[in-house]
């Protein structure tokens, strides 16, 4: 784990990226807009200014985030409010087809706005479908998508061109960019249906509830914010990010406080209502506690990484060892394996790296595995890991370069020349000084290797 990687861990855990932030901004925009409209008449001048500034700020942040899922979620939330306030047709009514067409037009327009990114998503959906086909009944296991997807991507590009448009768009992927779809892949059809049935039963149970007369505004505001998050989750992964989880639970609490059981059903419904409220509040406590724990762990990981960069390898190794025991986290385990490799503890590094692969895998994990195998003398496994890294993320020139160097090291000039040719002619999405230097080195060595072979 480099210092920059360590610094990126914390913000990624809290808000992931600008796209995820756009979803949060969209839900908050709905809440603030609704609250502003509700209180505008009774608000003083100062409060009106505050409301206007908040609305403007969230709208500007939403635009700057460039997150398509946020806008789609916002549209869904506004539509929900529009059903109540402006009598818009519901989706399942005879006139609902107009709403479906508008929603489809919105999704298609956003597809073309960032076409390259959208094509990358389509690749993810395609490979995710392969995972589901192989594990459709019982799934791959909850939370195992991060440890599975990139392996399937490597298999996919091992039989498809690694210089195609698809290959240029491929990247290390840990999310399906569709939370329900990822949950289906992880749980399998059988368990997913059971979960869906439980949700349906809960929703049907809420038919025995009514909105409190003085909480009508709270109910529709929190419901619209939740709908925003749920619809956005069809195009991203908001429910796997702490900030969204926290606000989703807050919206749920607000929604529950706005309803009460119908008088005729009080005795049969009250216990479930109280249990559900307790469960949501306990979930908020758990999510918050876990977030604090993760923040502390990530901060300590950054400190350990800084120690390593400063030359205190053994002290950094000790810190990462303690962290890996207390936090079963793939990024921490990978950092620990790196430190072990740096101090030449290859056998232990291999063991820790094997544990890392239970949590997540990417091309860096494969490359480190290849380095360890090569230095341990297991050349066959090293070659396999180098190849896996290349196929996992074909657009990374450094992966091909490491495989090329491996063949040079073992004296296989024929294969080295094949990969030299691959490096010199591969499409480069974003040229950099590193890619230019690699091509210069390989270009100079290629002529020498060809002369040697002749």
Q: Could you give the distance between the termini?
A: 43 Å
Strand order of the largest sheet: 1-2
| pLDDT averaged over residues | 90
Task: Count the beta strands.
Answer: 2
Structural class: mainly alpha
Identify the quaternary structure here: single chain
Largest sheet: 2 strands, antiparallel
Number of helices: 20
Regions with little confidence, pLDDT below 50 for 5+ residues: none
What is Rg? 26 Å
Strand content: under 5%
Helical content, roughly?
over 70%
Give the H and E element order: HHHHHHHHHEHHEHHHHHHHHH
The outline comes out as: elongated
Descriptive notes:
The chain is mainly α and 454 residues long. The protein has a domain of 224 residues. The chain is built from 20 helices and two strands. A two-stranded antiparallel ribbon has the order 1-2. The longest helix has 44 residues. The protein starts with a helix and ends with a helix. The mean pLDDT is 90.
Index terms:
single chain; 454 residues; mainly alpha; two-stranded antiparallel sheet; 20 helices; 2 strands; 1% strand; elongated
Please render the helix and strand layout as text.
Elements: H1 3-15, H2 18-39, H3 45-65, H4 68-85, H5 96-113, H6 115-134, H7 149-158, H8 165-169, H9 179-205, E1 209-211, H10 216-232, H11 242-257, E2 259-261, H12 266-309, H13 313-326, H14 330-342, H15 346-356, H16 363-375, H17 379-392, H18 397-409, H19 413-425, H20 433-453
Antiparallel strand pairs: 1-2
Quick summary:
The chain is mainly alpha-helical and 454 residues long. Helices cover 76% and strands 1% of the residues.
